[in-house]
Write a structure and sequence with these properties.
The protein is of the alpha/beta class. The protein is built from nine helices and seven strands. The two termini are about 30 Å apart.
């Protein structure tokens, strides 16, 4: 009986998450439409997303951020942000980690999510991983954003893996892009989001959500030939942190 009530409570907790996602968007809809209408206004959109939307969701879910930095993010500098992908909370947590405006690169399927998908399409770089032209277009769009002083965020697993997988294989796009644009790679580890809000409807609970920002990887002296080894090195570092936590 206790197990049944826990599952019901977790299911309601999951529903509560989507309610929290929608409330600020609905209340701020005219402002968000305006700020997402032009790329020059994106830093203001990012400020709202980071300081209002993400905080509203994380604290409303009882998922209290605990962030540790091995190296600080420098204001006004562009980076490639990468992390393990475990939960929808990863989006809000990434917003909390970086004070610098950045743009998500993510799969186009998220456009289908009601309300959220409308703005996702307007402000993020979407990619169809099965389409070579779409993948190529990502680099052009990312370059344009980097030239405006923004950072880029990619979850290199390419999606949320099965819950039994601690860390899936990394795809090389983020590392190829970082080398091409000579920007530092900022690896980070999300320790608790899988427990806070997994994709299993009958699981999830509030609590602290720890993030560890690891030492940055510089790319200025690198070329694309080391993309694979760099990708593997970053993955091994994140995996080591996750295994230590286990």
């Amino acid at each position: 009986m206790i197990t049944i009530f826990r599952k019901i409570g977790s299911a309601l907790y999951q529903v509560w998450f989507y309610i929290l996602v929608a409330i600020p968007i609905i209340l701020l809809f005219p402002i968000l439409v305006l700020l997402s209408a032009s790329e020059k206004w994106y830093p203001h959109f990012f400020w709202v997303a980071r300081n209002l939307w993400a905080n509203f969701i994380l604290f409303g879910m009882g998922c209290i951020p605990r962030i540790k930095y091995a190296e600080k993010i420098v204001k006004g500098k562009s980076y490639m942000l990468v992390a393990n992908h475990t939960s929808m909370l990863d989006v809000m947590m990434m917003l909390k980690v970086s004070p610098n405006p950045f743009v998500f690169v993510g799969k186009k399927e998220l456009v289908k999510i009601p309300i959220f998908g409308f703005f996702y399409k307007r402000v993020c770089i979407t990619v169809d991983r099965s389409d070579a032209k779409s993948r190529t277009a990502v680099y052009r769009r990312a370059q344009k954003r980097l030239q405006k002083g923004l950072s880029i965020c990619i979850f290199p697993e390419g999606g949320v893996p099965d819950e039994a997988i601690i860390l899936d294989d990394f795809k090389g796009g983020a590392f190829k892009m970082a080398i091409a644009h000579q920007i530092p790679i900022v690896p980070m580890v999300f320790f608790d989001n899988k427990q806070r809000l997994p994709f299993t409807l009958t699981k999830g609970k509030p609590g602290k959500s720890r993030v560890k920002v690891l030492q940055f990887f510089e790319t200025k002296a690198l070329d694309e030939r080391v993309k694979i080894s760099l990708c593997e090195e970053v993955r091994e570092l994140i995996l080591k942190e996750l295994m230590m936590k286990e």
